[in-house]
Amino acid sequence: MNLHSLPSFHLVTVSHCHSSHNLLRRFKKNLKMQNEDGQITELYIPRKCSATNRLITAKDHASVQINIGHLDESGVYNGHFSTFALCGYVRAQGDADSGLDRLWQKKKVELKQ
């Protein structure tokens, strides 16, 4: 194998660690799996637990996602809902009920309901 026939690569180094960190962060920020129309083309987008902010992995079969419907002033469902995801860890600890109650109380204040 002749080394002169191989393509040449240029190594670009950044003198400051801070600058390379910003460069990497900007690159990751712009890296998205979208088509030309702006639609997301990812096959799997992991969820986060609403109570603990942990990632819910594909193997967490004890996790649940709950939609809570919004009501109007007369108590009739208006077609809107809030979604909460709870990981299996929270459910196994027995904290799902209190966590969901805390999350819904916070959401009710945001919705003024």
UniProtKB/TrEMBL annotation:
Alphabetic keyword roster: Ribonucleoprotein, Ribosomal protein
PROSITE patterns assigned to the protein according to its UniProt record, in alphabetical order: RIBOSOMAL_S21E (PS00996)
Pfam families: Ribosomal_S21e (PF01249)
InterPro entries with a match to the protein in the record: Ribosomal_eS21, Ribosomal_eS21_CS, Ribosomal_eS21_sf
Any one GO molecular-function label of the UniProt entry: structural constituent of ribosome
GO biological processes: translation
Gene Ontology CC: one annotated term: ribonucleoprotein complex
Protein family according to the UniProt entry: Belongs to the eukaryotic ribosomal protein eS21 family.
Protein name: 40S ribosomal protein S21-2
Organism, as annotated: Cicer arietinum (Chickpea)
Gene: LOC101488232
